[in-house]
Specification:
Blueprint: E1 3-6, E2 16-22, E3 29-30, E4 35-40, E5 45-49, E6 54-57, E7 66-68, E8 72-77, E9 97-98, H1 120-129, H2 147-157, H3 172-187, E10 190-198, H4 200-207, H5 215-228, E11 235-237, E12 242-244, E13 250-256, E14 259-265, H6 273-288, E15 302-306, E16 325-339, E17 342-356, H7 362-377
Parallel strand pairs: 1-9, 13-15, 15-16
Antiparallel strand pairs: 1-8, 2-4, 2-7, 3-6, 4-5, 6-8, 10-17, 11-12, 13-14, 16-17
Helix pairs in contact: 1-2, 5-6, 5-7
Amino acid sequence: MALSVVMPALEMAQETGKLLAWLKQEGDAIRKGEPLLEIETDKAVFELEAPGDGVLAGVKSNAGDVVPVGQTIAWIVAPGEQPPVESEQPAAPSARIVTAPTPRPSPAAAPSAEGPRISPKARRMAEQHGVDISKVRGTGPGGTITGDDILAAAEAQKSAPQSAPEPAGLSTLARLMAERTTQSWTQTPHFFLVREVDAGALIEARKGLDPSITITDLLIATLARAVAKHPKMNASWTGSSIQLNPSVNISLAIAVKDGVVGAVIPDADKLPLAEIAARRKDLAEHARAGRLRPADITGGTFTLSNLGMFGIDAFSAIITPPQAAVLAVGRIADRVVPVNGQPGIRPMLTLTLSSDHRVIDGAQAAAFLGALAEAIATPQAMTT
């Protein structure tokens, strides 16, 4: 039976994806799980794997094409089989349509009395480039203004003598990261809380563990369990209301070439420490090799960003929408602090919590950070 390969959806507001490159050619034999093509969305660049064995046929989209979510871009058929002729009728319930994950409709580009149809990504790009969308003609489905339309309009504006030159050599990941952080910083009301924690117990707890388990693994386990006890920290802003997420999915910020990706450990509050360490290691290796799967970067509900290994004492991180918080962790360093009323030297760790004030108030964030600090000071329960 022929399998359709469709443009997947990775986030609620995604309407299109850009096909960057085919990794297989039409007529090539395909094995299930092999990398098939590279796709760019608002969230990341990733490889889409083949959904089954067969032959690649009926390729409908080429490198550079912007394709609506859910649209068929190719087929995988049996040797000698022809790709199906698509009809106007919806697929029967038994048809195997492959997505990763299931596409979700978004109202973001619906017609509005306030302006033209425009995708969320294009709207952000218009604000970034100073483009008046009322003067842009959309070339997307139904006249929707796309990111390419905004870029074309921005290029036209650059003809003015005072226009600044476009930055050269910006990678796709770096560009996407710049767009996301700009959107978050300008649209999310951040506030920050800082807490110093004695990390002595954390260091002692690690000594009796497998050497492959890191301080970051202990922090993920401790953080996930603390988040589970404070539901507001695990919530999301939907645009008009607060959504409490049922699962604690910790997104770990991982530095890669030209940027940072958030790799997700689902249900981290329920996993044993050894499993967290194994998943963290696997995600880090895949991220640095550019081989993260769609499922690896979706569904995060709270982010941990640790720069301690780079010698950073403390920093403030930017929230990743629709998450409501991110914890920034610095290095463990010896400092002079009061110990039983006397000056003493202790290994101290600085935690900086960034929160979305639409979801979390100061007292709630303070209570959470206090509970997290207490858990880090007594991490024995995390070592099992």
